[in-house]
Amino acid sequence: MILLSTIKSLSEKYSQQIVELRRHLHANPELSYKEFNTVKYIADQLGSFGIESTQVATTGLLVEIKGKNHTKSTIALRADMDALPILETSDVPYKSKVSGVMHACGHDVHTSSLVGTAKILDEIKDKFEGTVRLLFQPGEEKNPGGASYMIRDGALENPRPTGIIGQHVFPLLPVGKIGFREGMYMASADEIYLKVIGKGGHGAAPDVCIDPILISSHIIIALQQIVSRNANPRQPTVLTFGNIIGQGATNIIPNEVNIAGTFRAMNEKWRESGLQKIKKMAESIAEGMGGRCEVEISKGYPYLENNPELTQRIKEAAVDYVGKENVVDIDITLASEDFAYYSQIIPASFYRLGTRNEAKGITSYVHTSTFDIDEDALKIGPGLMAWMAVKELEFMVLRK
Asked: d(Cα 318, Cα 384) in Å, to the nearest integer?
């Protein structure tokens, strides 16, 4: 496998450059839909390699690496670029320079890795047939999801790719390991906002009040029945309320209570049914107790299903690249990803790149203030994705 050896060699050769690129992104994070400096930096980096890019979705980029007979087939690769509103507490040389904003989910890794993939593919474009389309996407962390804007702006058209592959860091897997899951993988995620309205007053005279705190407590407990008694026990689903604001006092009953939470499911039919039940139950309980409840549902990402056939093929490519002993099966998760939007249109597969190293103390999970990666993962990620793309194009060309 001469081409495989070439890709591995190039991935190793450019790894330090990609690490430096990642560190720049990590030190200069930008929140969802505000990735203006990030997208310019990535476009400039690609331009320095002689790779052209097109800005889409305001702060997104599209890149095409065209091989021989480039119209034969197209495969898409995706990375996300936004950071999170988290104050970084680790003391690393590349610590975030933006107070309260941090790359705590590895999007700096995904983006830098895909830049490396672009550079590798551009150098070997005379050795494969077809086109690789690279999507540098904004706003994965915030509804409605940057993937929806990329799709709106034609990222999956002219021509439509035969499939799309996404890579995400995984701090539960040691560096060097790659994780895959066929079929159902990640949950949908909808935001639930409840405003429970009563009648405030003195805490010593509850009889002349309508207590929204008491109503809220009944609503929160009762809504758990939707998971425990309405959802199919074989169907993973979660309803969590993580924020309650009732600005009364020890002797003050407030006029209203605001509650926020998340509903997650792995079946679109049940998702819609569950959301309807949440709304109806919350409104009915409040009304029955003399108050009222205003329910706002912010629809989030759909559930993510990895196309089994595509996943099997890229898994085999990973075995070629890192060895069978380093390719593992992973379980479903109730976390969510806007990559799911792509999976509703074309075959998609979302896999995990191991980034953990206990010996180096790199064990923090994503969305924490101490999250980091073992940067040895960037010796693997760019080349692995390039190899997956080449193998998938080869499969599609031969199938035609």
From this structure: 7
pLDDT classification of 123: cutoffs 50, 70, 90? very high
pLDDT score recorded for residue 395: 93
Overall size of the chain counted in residues: 400
Matching fold, domains 2-185+303-399 and 188-298: no
CATH fold of 2-185+303-399 reads: Aminopeptidase (3.40.630)
Q: Catalytic site residues?
A: 301, 375
The number of beta carbons lying within 10 Å of the beta carbon of residue 147 is 31
Burial grade of 252 (CB within 10 A; 0-12, 13-18, 19 or more): middle
pLDDT digits (tens, 9 = 90+) for 85-122: 999 999 999 999 999 999 999 999 999 999 999 999 99
Read off the pLDDT of residues 164-198 as tens digits, 9 standing for 90 and up.
Answer: 999 999 999 999 999 999 999 999 999 999 999 99
Asked if 38 and 30 touch (Cβ cutoff 8 Å), the reply is: yes
Q: Give the burial class of 91: count Cβ atoms within 10 A of its Cβ; 0-12 exposed, 13-18 middle, 19 or more buried.
A: exposed
Structure tokens that stand for 75 in this block: 């495969």
The CATH T-level fold of domain 188-298 is: Alpha-Beta Plaits (3.30.70)
The structure tokens listed for 244 are: 């309650």
The residue ranges of every structural domain in the chain are 2-185+303-399, 188-298
84-89 LR contacts (CB < 8 Å, sep 24+): 84/29, 84/31, 84/141, 84/367, 85/31, 86/367, 86/368, 86/369, 87/369, 88/369, 88/370, 89/369, 89/370
Q: List residues bridging with 263 in a β-sheet.
A: 190, 239
Backbone dihedral region for residue 183 (phi beyond 0: left; psi -120 to 50: alpha; all else: beta): left
Tokens of 212: 């929204």
